[in-house]
Amino acid sequence: AISTLRKMLKDSTKSPEFVKTVPKRGYQLICSVERLSPFSTDSNTDVEETASEHEAPAVELEASDTPPTEIVTDTTADLEPQVEPTKTQPKPASNTINWLPRVIIFLSLLLPVCVLLFTNPAESQFRQIGEYQNVPVMTPVNHPQINNWLPSIEQCIERYVKHHAEDSLPVEVIATG
């Protein structure tokens, strides 16, 4: 609203003649203002001359025979139709903006499900490197040798079997190192 007023008054923001910006407060009117009666034609002529001196359009200062309340009513009647189309137009834009995040979320949830359903994991192949307490010890085929760890693995299996004698024994041990 202030920028529109400044455009109509041809007022600069750097060296204002009519409206001054007050930091953290708002705006201040710095020009002189005269009160006019709507029925006086002489004062309207003076106002038009003053307006032409400042090169501002005199749209609101035209002579009229209607009381000021009707002018205000006409102004609000003019503003209402302008406001309604503005409210109507953003709704389709908000709908377009609204569906985009939903589609992105849907695809981000669908992608991992598709990967899990339609891909098979590569099955690992193992080789047996030992057997302790009837529990085979396996290692992946493409894994380097872990022969130095065999005594530790054997000790681990024996302690597990000793402490968990009541529970079931492990089916196999896969050592990766």
Automatic annotation (TrEMBL):
Keyword terms, alphabetized: DNA-binding, Membrane, Transmembrane, Transmembrane helix
Alphabetized InterPro entries for the sequence: OmpR/PhoB-type_DNA-bd, WH-like_DNA-bd_sf
UniProt-annotated stretches for the region Disordered: 39-92
Transmembrane intervals: 99-118
Domain OmpR/PhoB-type: 1-31
Keyword Ubl conjugation: no
Keyword Oxidoreductase set for record: no
GO process terms (BP): phosphorelay signal transduction system; regulation of DNA-templated transcription
Coiled coil location: none
GO-annotated molecular function: DNA binding
Segments of the chain annotated as binding DNA: 1-31
This protein's name: ToxR
Source organism per UniProt: Vibrio alginolyticus
Name of the gene: toxR
